[in-house]
Structure formats: C-alpha cells, structure tokens
Amino acid sequence: MSEETIRNITHFGWDMFSGEVIMSLIVMGIIIIFSFAVYFKFRKLDPTKPDKGFAMVVESVVDKLESFTVEMMGNKWRHFSGYALGLAMYIILSFLVSIIGFPGPLTYLGNTLSIALCTFFLIHITAMKKNKLGYFKRYIDPIPILLPVNLLSMWAPLLSLSLRLFGNALAGYTLMSIVYYFLGVASDAIFGGFISTGASNIFIAPFITPVLHLYFDIFSGLIQTFIFVMLTMIFISQEDPEEEDSSEVLKIQKGKA
C-alpha cells in the first residue's frame, strides 16, 4: 500500500491532489458523459420502432431497477430509481478502476463518507417532510432523558454505510497489494537469474491475479453496490412508508373472514 493511500485513509483534510479524490472526480465525469450520451441517443430514437442494441440494454436495466425500487420502497418512490442508478454506477465503477491500476476512490474514507452523507441527508429530509415539527419528537421518545442516546443512534446509518463500503474496498485493495508483492518476490526468485532485475518480477502475477480481481473488484463490487443501494432504499422509505390502499385492506379482511 502506498504512503499516499495510507495518508489519505488517516487524514480527513481535503487534498485535491489525492489520487483517490481525482479518480472519484473522473468516475463522476464518466457517469455524466455517459448520461448525456444516453439522453441524446434516446432523443433520436423512433418511438414507433422497437428498441435494439444499446438502447434495448439501457431500457432493460432502467426497467429492472425501477421495478426493484417499487418493490423495495413502494410505487410512490418510483422516481427514486434514477438516483439509485447513479449511485450504483458510481460504486461499481469505483471498484472497477482498480483493475487497471488506478487508485480506488472507495479506499479513501472521505469518498465513502460523502456518498453515505447523501443518503443520511435524504433520510432526514424525508422524515422532516413527512412529520413536519413532529420529526423532533423522535429524539425524546419514549422519555426525554434518552435524548443523548437518540442523538447518537441518529448517526448509525451514516457510519454503517460509509464504514462497510470503505472496509470492503480497503480490504480488497490491501489483500491484492500483498498478493502482488509476494508474487513479485517469487517471480524474481525464479526468473531473476535469467532476466534483468526489475523485469523478472512480473511473470507469475498475470496468471493468478485475474481470478482474484474477478472476486475483489467485480463480484465483491457488485455485492457491495447492491447492499449500499438496498440499504439506502430501506432507510429512506421507512421514514415515509407507502400507505396501503384502504380498498385492498378491506378485501384482505373480507377474505380472512
């Protein structure tokens, strides 16, 4: 692990020259460019003809994510799928850039904390919109003396989301760094007598590390993306749950009778 990475992990100061911060901005730039490309692509499509190719794939992904959002949060949260898609793209791309040797944005706690703060603010904005001044009552329930405890528990989703994502990304990065180091040592020990020093430590790694990257950067990245997005949906929707249709409730009650 580089000294720069260790410094970024342990230091919360805003450093515009940090590799992790710069890569985070690049990932966001890629998402913005991709979004505009999709927008202009769909503007040119003929609505009377069936979609095919790239347009069909994009539409399929959007439809599935919208269905998942409705399933997790309720029909009135259907529009939330756009934010969920942007969040998912950022997290998975942040894992994937590590495969090509760039600093992983999620190995810097400031980046994971930033996206977790977005969820944190959405949770409390939703609660305020739903409960108005009654929002503040939660901090003195069931008795006012529990105010300090309730204020501490308020930060639980923020810490849970940011530290889980950061911990998994950092663990994968650290393990891969250790593997590359020892494979380099082993390769140098085997081929060092035949090839000049510096070039002999790269022969074993390409045969072993792709499988590990498949797990730590792709499989683990997809799992962490799913968990982060799903928890975001749960935390936000529970502040303003969808009310059941009274006619549907009546039917269920009659069926039970």
Please provide a written account of the structure:
This protein is mainly alpha-helical. It has one domain (3-241). It is built from 9 helices and no strands. The protein has helices spanning 3-10, 19-43, 54-73, 81-96, 109-131, 147-153, 156-191, 205-237, 246-256. Helix 3 (54-73) packs across helix 4, helix 5 runs antiparallel to helix 7 (156-191) and helix 7 (156-191) runs antiparallel to helix 8 (205-237). It is flat.
Topology overview:
Blueprint: H1 3-10, H2 19-43, H3 54-73, H4 81-96, H5 109-131, H6 147-153, H7 156-191, H8 205-237, H9 246-256
Helix pairs in contact: 2-4, 3-4, 4-8, 5-7, 5-8, 7-8
Separation of the first and last Cα atoms: 65 Å
What is the number of strand segments? 0
Gross geometry: flat
> Which range best describes the helical content: under 10%, 10-25%, 25-40%, 40-55%, 55-70% or over 70%?
55-70%
Segments where pLDDT lies below 50 for 5+ residues? 245-257
Structural class: mainly alpha
Q: DSSP strand (E) fraction?
A: under 5%
Main beta-sheet strand count, sense and barrel state: none
Using the CA coordinates, give the radius of gyration: 24 Å
Chain-averaged pLDDT: 81
Question: What is the number of domains?
Answer: 1
Number of helical segments? 9
Question: Secondary-structure element order, as H and E?
Answer: HHHHHHHHH
Structure summary:
This protein is mainly alpha-helical. Helix content is 70%, strand content 0%.
Tags for this entry?
257 residues; single chain; mainly alpha; flat
